[in-house]
Sequence to fold (470 residues):
Amino acid sequence: MPSEVKVLIAEDEPNALAGLAELVSGWGYRTETARDGLEAWEKTPAWNPAIIVTDLKMPRLDGMGLLTRLAEGGAGISTNIAVVVLTAMGSIQLAVEAMKLGAYDFLQKPVDATRLKTILANATRQRETAIELEVARRRLRESGVLGALVGGSTKMREIFALIEQIAPSNVPVLITGESGTGKELVARTLHDLSPRKPRPFVAVNCAAIPETLIESEIFGHEKGAFTGALERRAGCFELASEGTLLLDEIGEMPAGTQAKLLRVLEERKLRRLGARTEQDVNVRVLAATNREPGSAVAQGYLRADLYYRLNVFNIHMPPLREHIEDLPAMAEAMTREMNQKHGRKVSGVSASMLDRLMAYNWPGNARELRNTIERAVVLCPDGAPLDAGHLSPGFGSDLGKGTPVLDGNVVTVRVGATIDEAERLLILRTLEATGQNKTRAAEILGVSLKTLHNKLKEYGREAQISSVRD
Fold:
């Protein structure tokens, strides 16, 4: 209840401070005031607020300094304080920096009372999810599971830790990785571990919507806005109100729509097609792409300003081949999932099956693994484990399926060579065969261009091939 929630307000302008305190108290919150960041910092241990509303520009200690101290913590300082920053017009970049430091949300001056009330309500719900988040953390530590994501490898645990850290906030997140790596699962986990969990999660694939309809799908339209608009229709932003919106394959969105999306993100207002008035937007926006973001910007697929606005945090999902040690746990989890889905009682995954799965390159990543497991579960008798006989005919013989091959080129590896030596030889010979075309070589090898660059840096060859065509 609001009456049990403490709000500390830091503002150096006396009239604004008094007005905010009166407004927030009127909504049932317990309030305390501070004339600058230093006074707010000094009052925090004793007052123990759930929420701090702070101006950014103040004497002695400004809002950014207060945020920094809160992030560092200390005796008597809770790590679950939601900080809402107030910023003047034209200081959006400062607000973005504040959110990187851990701010829960920001609000432009003059303060919109309705917007502030909504932010405080959302921040209050955040406290209610703190226990659930701690349970999720404990589960992660014990079993390597976070939501629908599974993995005990170093890469996956780093991703889990980042998800835990940023899920309770409202910051935009750009999720990258190859197709099938689980980008939507990341988005759903961010939603489920946030105060927005009770509200809708809406995912829209920008690549699957015709260019002529995408603005209507995302922003909505009024009756008569265009030919065929026979009635008013809510867009994805309205459908996801107070929840989370995932814009999948954001790099496929038309440039004009990207510009309108940027305006919605910055002003938190949208106008339906054909509407005369704007409406407030209260949605956390996540975006995903299977393109390498830097290349997408350079090639014109993604606006640079939109990229910087979305990329407050980046979560990169590695391809399955780069964390293959997670496959056994993933396969077991998927088997349980498919048992439930199809009403089966398969007892697990046999060693022979795992050997075959571990030897495969998985160009389709986790999505391909899920499809493979689903097929096997349907074929497997109840009570028996999945084994290699339940795989599709020829499975494992098409390790390079969908990947170009180099005709007339053979790489010979001596018996006794290490895996690192074999990998190095394969990479360098593939580059030679492609005329030092790294993009083509990465495609053949089934790795990202970034991974190939990193390998070449390890080999000390980057300077030698500076003229390579990317």
